[in-house]
Amino acid sequence: MTAASVSDNTGGIHLLSQIATASPSVTKAWADAGYRTKAIDHGVHLGIDVEVVRKDPGIKGFEVIPRRWVVERTFGWLAHHRRLARDYATHPRRSEAVIHIAMIDLISRRLTHGSTPTGATPDRRPPVRPRRARQ
């Protein structure tokens, strides 16, 4: 996350540098149309192919933009977690930690074929006590 005063290019250059350091095996990145030549050139310098995903100018109205839906879908998954539905965190590292927890929850539920609890699901209901017969 960056402040609103940070340009896409500056943020992109910083992010690409972090990715190249932390994960040297990354060779491809997709970027929004806001990223211009500086971030793309920096990616080439680091050995990362940065592809800008753009909307087809000939199509009017709504269009699913390739690779963009992956980001939107992920935001939808994250919004299922109460702490991420609104921006409650005062520090970006706290938000980042909650995002990690949310993604761990998502992956663990997929691995165990569980479902995301919404209200009283069978695994979260209180145990039912058997009734005693009246005498």
Describe this entry's structure for a reader.
With 135 residues, this protein is mainly α. It folds into two domains: 47 residues; 58 residues, no CATH class. The protein is 46% helix and 6% strand. The chain contains five helices and two strands. The protein has a two-stranded parallel sheet with strand order 1-2. The radius of gyration is 22 Å and the shape is elongated.
Residue windows where pLDDT falls under 50 for at least 5 positions: none
Task: Classify the secondary structure makeup into a structural class.
Answer: mainly alpha
Round the Cα radius of gyration to an integer and report it.
22 Å
DSSP summary, beta strand count: 2
Strand composition percent: 5-15%
Output mean pLDDT. Answer: 79
Strand arrangement, largest sheet? 1-2
Q: Number of helical segments? A: 5
Amount of helix: 40-55%
Backbone shape: elongated
Number of domains: 2
Terminus-to-terminus distance: 67 Å
* Elements, N to C (H/E): HEHEHHH
Sum up the structure in keywords:
single chain; 135 residues; mainly alpha; two-stranded parallel ribbon; 5 helices; 2 strands
Give the arrangement of secondary structure elements.
Blueprint: H1 8-22, E1 28-31, H2 37-46, E2 49-52, H3 68-79, H4 82-85, H5 92-112
Parallel strand pairs: 1-2
Helix pairs in contact: 1-2
Condensed summary:
This protein is mainly alpha-helical. The chain has five helices and two strands, in the order αβαβααα.
